[in-house]
Amino acid sequence: xxxxxxxxxxxxxxxxxxxxxxxxxxxxxxxxxxxxxxxxxxxxxxxxxxxxxxxxxxxxxxxxxxxxxxxxxxxxxxxxxxxxxxxxxxxxxxxxxxxxxxxxxxxxxxxxxxxxxxxxxxxxxxxxxxxxxxxxxxxxxxxxxxxxxxxxxxxxxxxxxxxxxxxxxxxxxxxxxxxxxxxxxxxxxxxxxxxxxxxxxxxxxxxxxxxxxxxxxxxxxxxxxxxxxxxxxxxxxxxxxxxxxxxxxxxxxxxxxxxxxxxxxxxxxxxxxxxxxxxxxxxxxxxxxxxxxxxxxxxxxxxxxxxxxxxxxxxxxxxxxxxxxxxxxxxxxxxxxxxxxxxxxxxxxxxxxxxxxxxxxxxxxxxxxxxxxxxxxxxxxxxxxxxxxxxxxxxxxx
Length: 398
Ligand code: ADP
What we know:
There is one protein chain. By secondary structure, the chain is of the alpha/beta class. The chain contains 15 helices and 14 strands. The strands form two sheets. It has an eight-stranded mixed β-sheet, with helices on both faces. A hairpin with an 8-residue loop joins strand 13 and strand 14 (about 375-380). The protein binds adenosine-5'-diphosphate. Its cofactor is Mg(2+); Mn(2+).
C-alpha cells in the first residue's frame, strides 16, 4: 500500500496542470490549473473538496511561481508532507526512452536532446521539472513520455517513405502520441474483458480534442496514426489530420501563404472547426448537425468516415481484431459517433447493441456490440494521470 500521495504535473508553455492522487484508490485529492503563464495576468485555480479557488500569479507569473503557489495550497490543506514523489508528463522522449524513468541529470539532458521533436512542449516540461526539484526538495521526480509506448512499432510502420538519410540525420519518423493513455486503456480493456492482453488484438481510438488511433497486439503498439507530430491521422478538433503534403507548395503559390501560416492553419484552424466554420467542440458539432447545419453535418461525417477507414487499416496492423476500444472525451461519451462508426464496420462482423451503446457514457465502461458480433467494441474511460501516478510510485519505490 502506498502511504504517500503522488503529485502529477503536466506543463505546457503557458499552462501547468497538476493533480494530487492517492495511488492506491486513484482518488484525486486536489487539482490545479495555472493559465496565462508568462503574461502579466497569470493565475492558478485550485480545486479541493469540490470547491474552486483562484489565486493571482502576477507577482511571479511563471512556472516556478505556479509551483510555489501549489506548494502553499498543499500546506494550507496539510497535504505537503504527504507527497512522496512527483510524476511529469513529457510529450517527446524520441527514440531515447521506451519507458518511464526516474529523473537524474542524464535524463534532463535526454529531454533537452528531444526538444527539436517537441519544440513547444519539452522546454516547458523542463521548466516544470526544475521548479519541482527546487520547491519539493529531495523528492524523487519521474518522467512519463507520451511517445514511449509506441517505441515497439516495427520499422516498416514508423518509417516514412522519404530518403532514408532524413531519418538517420534528423530523426524524421513516426513517433505517435497519447502513449500513456494507450498503455492504461490496453491494460484496462484486458482486465475488463477478463483476458490476458497478450492474447488480444486491439484497435484503440483515443478521441479527444486531439485524436489518434493505435493498433495493439501482444500488449504492444504496432502502429499509430499520429506521426512526427500530432498533426497526422484522424480529423481532430482543430487539426486536419492526413492531407496531401503538396498543399504546402499549392497554398504558397496560390494563396501566398508562408510555411508557418500553413502549419498554423493545419494545426489550429482545420478539423471540425475548419470544416464547420463553427466550433472544434464535438458536442456543438453534433447539436448543430442535428439541426441541419451543412458544415456541421459534413464535419461530423468526415470525422466518422476517416475514423472508420483508419479502424480498417489498423486491423491490418494488429493482425486482426478482437476488441475495438473507444476512449477520450468523444470516445467515452458520444454514442452518436460510436454508432455511426460501427455502421461502417458491419463487414468486420461488428454490430451495435443500441441499448448498451447509450449506457456506456459519463465514465461507464461497457461492451457496445451484440453477442453475435465477431469482435467486441468496448468503451473504456482513460486515466492518464493515474497511469503517471502508478509509474511514479513504482519507480520511486513507494
Ligand atoms: P482533450 O484532448 O483536451 O483531453 P477530451 O478527451 O476531454 O479532450 O475530449 C474533449 C472532446 O470531447 C470535446 O470535443 C467534447 O465536445 C467531447 N465530448 C465531451 N462530452 C461529449 C458528449 N457527451 N458528446 C459528444 N462529445 C463530447
